[in-house]
Amino acid sequence: MTAFLSGLFRFRRGPWENLATVLIALGVVMLMQPFFLWAFTYSFFVTLVGTVMFIITSHFPE
Amino acid sequence: MGEGAGPGGIAALGLPWNEIMPNPIDIAAKATPPHLANRVRGLSDRAIAWIFVSPTIFLLLAINIFPLIWTIRLSFTNYAANKPNAEVKWVGIRNYTRILTDEDIWSHMTTTAHFLIWTILLQVIIGFTLAWLINRKFKGNDLLTTLIVIPMMLSPAVVGNFWTFLYQPQIGMVNYIVEFFTGIPASSFSMLGPGGLAPWSIIIVDTWMWTPFVMLICLAGLRSIPDYIYEAAEVDRASKWRQFWTITIPMVLPFLMLAVLFRGIENFKMFDMVNLLTGGGPGSETLLTSIDLKREAFEKWRTGYSSAYAIILFVTIFGLASIYVKALNKVKER
After folding, report:
1. pTM attached to this predicted model
2. What is the ipTM of this complex?
């Protein structure tokens, strides 16, 4: 956990990519779940943030 | 081989090989007009590389990037492609808010999720089991592998058509097989009609078609595990069950992950096969998002609205594809 946080603060690729991956996965789950309409409504925003974050952070140093 | 050497009697003529059979590069160089040749000689390697790459970049921009940017622009308007002379109004994010608060679209998303989850689950379980069995050396192993992969070589249009015949309540084979095993009369139910079986019918067809693909990926994973790891486990007296859970599964997992992501992306945008099998029906039981999108765009002609719909699906697929590429790189690093 400490390594993850330290990687985030030092703008390292690994932890930021992991965070973006979690956001994308969360967005996809929110988009397709059958329980809450509000989750469906905000799913696109979450996926978009995750995808843009992934594109940017994939250029961070290892 | 010397300069004058060559096949057959050519060496005997005593002529250099490149005078009898000139190099294609020399032919091209001789055919190039002098003014063009001089101009090319003056260019750097980098410039020449750009000259070769630029047609591809141009095509990529014209076919992929420009339509994408144009679709993003249209998604913020009320444009209708069947009314080209109508005034196009800028509507901001209204198309997006309408889509993301529409309960019907939400329902189509859950239909897609049902299709996605069950197809992936079945394909992974059956595909891995088949790969596990095929990986054991036995006679006819290669022939069996070839037979198993035949369904994925067929066109989805062909598959959709012939499964429609197989699912026919009167003449289809599936109903008679069900009757043979369960005693339920063949004409009393329809696999593609009302009654709740249609979503399962499309799952069966997709599983039949794409399980071999998952099997091939799993087989590649299983064959990449070196034998010495199992031999070391044998020396340590690890049981077969323990070997399976602590060696086989962790080593195959990145490949399995790859298969899941690939099938997930493919099935998220599934259109052709389901459109031919059910056309989204009965009612909207099998109305996947891609079929709904096609209806919005080319039957209702709500181009701006459907552009926003397409962008939402695109961002989702792009996000999943990013994870896919990441998983692929992890597999490559092994």
Report:
1. 0.80
2. 0.92
